[in-house]
Amino acid sequence: MTSAIGLNGLQKTYPGSPPVRALRNADLTINDNEFFTLLGPSGCGKTTLLRLMAGFEVPTAGELTLFGDDIAHLPPEKRPINTVFQHYSLFPHMTVLDNVAFGLKRLGKPDGEAKKMAQEMLDLVHLSEFGARKPDQLSGGQQQRVALARALAPHPRVLLLDEPLSALDLKLRQSMRAELKRLQRETGITFVFVTHDQEEALAMSDRIAVMSQGEIQQVGDPATIYEFPENRFVAEFIGDADFFEAEALGGSRYELSNGEILIGPETKTASGAEVTLFFRPEKATLKHAGEGVRGRVSDILYLGNSTDYVVELAQGGALTVRSENHKDGTAIADVGADVVVEIDPAAVRVVTP
Amino acid sequence: MMRLGDMIRSHMALIPAMVVIGFFMILPILIILIYSFLAPGDYGGVKPEFSIDAYQRLLFQRDLFDHMVFDPAYLKIAFRSVWVAVVSVVGCLILGFPVAYYIACQPEERRNIYLLLITIPFWTNLLIRTYCWILVLRDTGLINGGLMRLGLIDEPLSLLYTEGAIALGLIYTYVPFMVLPIYAALERLDRRLIEAARDLYSSRWVALRHVVIPLAMPGIVAGSILVFIPALGAFIAPDLLGGGKNLMLGSLVQLQFSSARNWPFGSALAMIIMAMVLISLFFYARSARKNGGGIQH
Q: Where does a domain end: A165, A200, A234?
């Protein structure tokens, strides 16, 4: 597999007192023809990384390569990389067609050819009829598509997308997800997508890099990130997570503070060590009796297709158990009921804090 | 139908301005219009008899035999005035645009300080400031003296009393009028659009040409109008720096009301200046409407 973008010890520090270390020592390889997502909360460094790739920022240290060539100090206009901006940033004084043709013309394409190619891009994003309009005569979703067409028109080697869906409403956002996937497949261009929406990231990406506080926490495909988070931050940020503290007894046995024994994954951790165990709420089952962690239902949240039961544990702390709803709509347990939480040992993970 | 009382109430805020404009602008303009069709009084002022002499004098002279002969002297002055005003606009644009751009790019708290600095020249009287240019430009002035002492020239360059000196004085006087509206347009400009242009293979200069300047066009046009109009009718700079031999419309008007004592001719000239300004504004407004706000290129 060819590497489209390579980061090697890439750093960005903004001067100030104290200096802001927006990106600390990032190592990452983004493959050619990949839908790659940078995921993290605001201020995690994902936008800084995107701006470094686009050329709007110059790295403080480290290497940044595009198909093997060092581009760290090239100005944005010299990089075959285009960006779909968060607020679209369409040129308000130009028609939609002129917006899309803008990059092509700057690359030296004759006027007629640029317009013809721009029209083809508009066809691709289903806006064939809108070329003569001004951007402010379009809806948010349409402007979004124009921004996409404009960035794709010069056939960049890499397309950067800076939270492009965040300004759209829910339904439109969902249809644009499928649209973006389709465009990525059809054009074969590497997409680097920035978002803070974990659901969006899981639904669209080939691979995800989860970022926090200027550092890349974990890189992997969506299923790996969801099922095998490497640390507590990743586990908490992606999906819902239950944590509880336990003492490793060696092998796959863990003892809770009230003496209950839980079977979990094999661990190499020394016997007697304090560990944090983690599982997804839908991987546990609520029972009225049997083997498992004991507790009492303290809250019930009805979610339509499922219900979240908040269980106060006998040993202290609380877990959330997500359970599919009965067809007749009745609850499995009422608030105040004594229950047993049965956790599939294969779904329990040990995470570093 | 709106009742008169409601109408007055809803436009009440405008009444003071309407009264001032009515009494001190529209009324004087009407008086000047009337004066321009009267005969000159012997010691200034006007005689109450109808005459189109003032307008005829613009293009024709009476010769010895009382025949009307075409005389382009005043036409030349009008053209020279327009030319000097256009040069001043261009000069102000070249000087003012980068300054406005620079200020608009500064952090917000610093912008107001710079804008205040732009107004510093207004703190001193215009006459004194223009006189200072004489000290700089005259044969024994700062520039010529300096160049001669450096041995670069043997005899002084004639800088003062030229059209160039007039334009210099006008540019110096009116450049703030160019900076402020352009700054206002650039300040509103979304900086992310420049990034978008850079991202789409535009160098700084190409982004300036295709994105910044078109979007700043309303400010550029407003600034050009604000410079062109007073420059066309200016008389202090032409008088002091043009030395009377390069007459411009403004100084010609002033002359008619003072030493020449031909009020009707002065009034007619004033009406001509106003007509020229109104006609150019009309053409601007029409082209702006056609191009959707004048920001298209």
A: A234
Sign of CA dihedral A132, A133, A139, A141: positive
Are the C-beta atoms of residues A267 and A336 closer than 8 Å to each other? no
Asked if B195 and A76 come within 8 Å (Cβ–Cβ), the reply is yes
A81 CB neighbours in chain B (<8 A) are 199
pLDDT tens-place values along chain B, 297 residues long:
567 778 778 888 888 999 999 999 999 999 999 999 998 888 878 888 888 888 888 888 877 787 888 888 888 888 888 999 999 999 999 999 999 999 999 998 899 999 999 888 888 888 898 888 988 888 888 888 888 888 888 888 888 888 889 999 999 999 999 999 999 999 999 999 999 999 999 999 999 999 999 999 989 999 999 999 999 888 888 888 887 777 888 888 888 888 888 899 999 999 988 988 888 888 888 877 765 544 443
Q: Tell me, yes or no, if B201 comes closer than 8 A to chain A by beta carbon.
A: yes
For A100-134, the pLDDT digits (tens) are 999 999 999 999 999 999 999 999 889 999 999 99
Indicate whether A202 and A65 sit together in one domain: yes
B238 close to B247: Cβ distance less than 8 angstroms = yes
A281 and A202 in one domain? no
Q: Which residues of A touch B208 (CB under 8 A)?
A: none
**Cβ <8 Å between A89 and B196:** yes
For residue A205, give its domain range: 3-234
**ipTM of predicted complex:** 0.84
To the nearest 5 percent, what fractions of chain B are helix, strand and coil?
70, 5, 25
Which of B200, B211, B296 best tests the A interface by mutation, with the highest count of A CBs <10 A?
B200
Domains in chain B: ranges and CATH: 56-292 (1.10.3720.10)
- B295/A contact by beta carbon, under 8 A: yes
Distance from the Cα of B110 to chain A's closest Cα (Å) equals: 18
**Residues A192 and A270 both lie in one domain:** no
Tell me, yes or no, whether A19 and A113 share the same domain.
yes
Q: Is B245 on the interface with A (CB under 8 A)?
A: no
3-state secondary structure of B159: coil
Under an 8 A CB cutoff, do A91 and B193 touch?
yes
Alpha carbons B135 and B124: distance in angstroms, whole number: 16
- DSSP per-residue codes, A250-290: STTEEE-TTS-EEE-----SPTT-EEEEEE-GGGEEEESSS
Query: Do A89 and A139 share a domain, yes or no?
Result: yes
State whether A156 and A99 are in the same domain: yes
Cβ atoms of B276 and B82 closer than 8 Å: yes
**Cα distances (Å, whole numbers) of residue A127 to A141, A148, A347:** 11, 11, 46
A243 at interface of B, judged by CB pairs closer than 8 A: no
Note whether A251 and A298 are same-domain residues.
Answer: yes
Tell which of A90, A91, A160, A192 to mutate to test the B interface (max B CBs under 10 Å).
Answer: A91
Residues of chain A found within 8 Å of residue B295, distances taken between Cβ atoms: 93
B197 touches chain A (CB under 8 A): yes
A132 in contact with B, Cβ within 8 Å: no
CATH number at residue A250: 2.40.50.140
Q: In what order do the strands lie in the sheet with A306-313?
A: A284-287, A338-343, A293-302, A306-313, A318-324
Show the beta-strand stretches assigned E in A122-188. Answer: 158-162
pLDDT at A61 over 60: yes
Contact at 8 Å (CB) between A11 and A61? Answer: yes
The CATH number of the domain holding residue A183 is: 3.40.50.300
